[in-house]
Amino acid sequence: MVPHRLSDTMGRLVESERALMQFFTDSPATALSHDDPETCDFLAGNPQEMALPEFVEAIQRWATPQDPHWFAYKFNEPYAQEAAADGLRERRGIPFESDDVFLTNGAFTGLTLCLRLVADPGDEVIFCSPPWFFYRSLIVAGGAVPVSVRVDEATWDLDVDAIESAITERTRAIIVNSPNNPTGRIYPAETLDRLAAVLTAASERYGRPVYLISDEAYSRIVFDDHAFVSPTERYPYSFLVYTYGKQLLTPGQRLGYVALPPTMPDRESIRERFWLAQIAFGGHGVPNAVLQRALADLDPLIVDVKALQRRRDRLVDALEAAGYEVHRPEGTFYLLPTSPDPDDAAFARRLADRKVYVLPGTLVDTPGRFRISVTGTDEMVERAVPIFEAAARR
Ligand code: PMP
Questions:
Q1: Which of 24, 134, 374 most suits a substitution to test ligand 1, by most atoms within 8 Å of the C-beta?
Q2: pLDDT band, residue 19 (cuts 50/70/90)
Q3: What 3-state class would DSSP assign to 2?
């Protein structure tokens, strides 16, 4: 028998994701059972409550075919492009064109397509750390080299000087995620302007654009009176990547898009290439027929953000009172407290023994912290608070 020899890229991927794979296949997280009423699932941004009734109605309505072509192959369907562009125009006051919207089954595919579009094997792509844990894999899977740049840990804002120092002639793109998973930070306009100046200078220096891939998965999960500023409004060579998985809390119904802002130079040539990338690299990763039909009904729908905010406040206040060091996120689903035990994985294991499931910070490049998702229910929060308190005392 000849032993397996899979691609080197796959080998690099396994290397970069070892800790994550281990956590989900061989850790207390695998004991999590939703049949157990005591389970407090704060692990990932997964729904713990029934979906919005309007969401269910829209899916049901559009699942009934109205013509023989209803379930034919779908691509970037004009009615879905128009609905997504309409939503962007209305909320942002920017004249997005529907032809510049490419439907994807979530941000996973949107990010993959943008990366494949701009980076060749060996090229470098910068991402900011702490990151969403799959950036590294998506970059590696395309053959490019991930370059991690730490944010400023005092403010969780982008460290633009560090980004500038990390740019080389091989840098093709930077992924910016605001509001940020896991820090909850919304990057201010001034920071984005400084970033734009650095990217513009680098693009001129090396004679080709450094693209900005703006991961806006949480752009509608914003708390208090914070304003979300899209990085795509401050720098022309930008891709806007969106998913409906957060605003609807339905990540298992894969729906999202990539939009080119009207300021993106030479959009016609990008449109053509994007179309090809969708087929060649995305594995026909467009949303299914029902979701594309439903998009116009889904775009205005959104989960109760105020309820998430109340849960954020309940948890931040309780954790602070119990002695945890924790900041109040401006958006997203996540809190990032300091772990009382420097070994965050061991701490997460101890909480899991009490059926409280959190993500060890090591998995998102923040050793010594842990991540709590406020998508857990109010009941889970109330059950978990005394457990967090007791764990802090220990
Ligand atoms: N980007 C960020 C920052 C995320 O948190 C997630 C999902 N957790 C994604 C992208 C991927 O979104 P989706 O699964 O809806 O494609």
A1: 134
A2: confident
A3: coil
Q: Is 45 in the pocket of ligand 1 (CB under 6 A)?
A: yes
Q: Report whether residue 176 contacts ligand 1, using a CB cutoff of 6 Å.
A: no
Q: Is the pTM of this model over 0.85?
A: yes
Burial of 75 (0-12, 13-18, 19+ CB in 10 A): middle
pLDDT tens figures, 240-271: 999 999 999 999 999 999 999 999 999 999 99
pLDDT at 209: 98
What is the number of the ligand 1 atom nearest to the C-alpha of 108? 16
Closest atom of ligand 1 to CA, residue 44: 8
Question: Ligand 1: which atom is nearest the Cα of residue 132?
Answer: 3
Question: Which of 345, 365, 358, 347 shows the shortest CA–CA distance to 384?
Answer: 358
Q: Give residue 15's pLDDT.
A: 83
**Residue 258 DSSP SS3:** strand
- C-beta 337 within 6 A of ligand 1: no
Q: How far apart are CA 34 and CA 39, in angstroms?
A: 6
Mean of the per-residue pLDDT values of the chain: 96
- SS3 (DSSP) at 41: strand
DSSP state of 29: G
Total length of the chain: 394
Note the pLDDT of residue 259: 98
